[in-house]
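Translate sequence into structure tokens.
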Amino acid sequence: MNILEGQILLFEIDEENEDFKEIKGKDESIHTKFDPFSIFIIVDPLEKEIWLWIGENASIRKKFIATQKAPSIRDRYGVDFKIVTVDEGNEPLGFKEIVGL
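Result follows.
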């Protein structure tokens, strides 16, 4: 297995630095960290998916930054990973299982 060793990684958009920052301390369900004004990336190494979760009140600027930066996170962990965009309130079942919804 790669450097992820099967663990789910969580990143939140950092609008000031125009990048994503990793969120540590995943003792609780991932969804408890979600904020409707933000955007998160969830890296799932087992399914080779990168989920881009967009809060319903996220700004246009954050959405722009997210779409520009998501491929760099994908390239860091696996160029064959698929990027999937998820809007708050329209999360598919597979995503809900990963984040604990």
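Note: The domain at 9-99 is CATH 3.40.20.10 (Severin).
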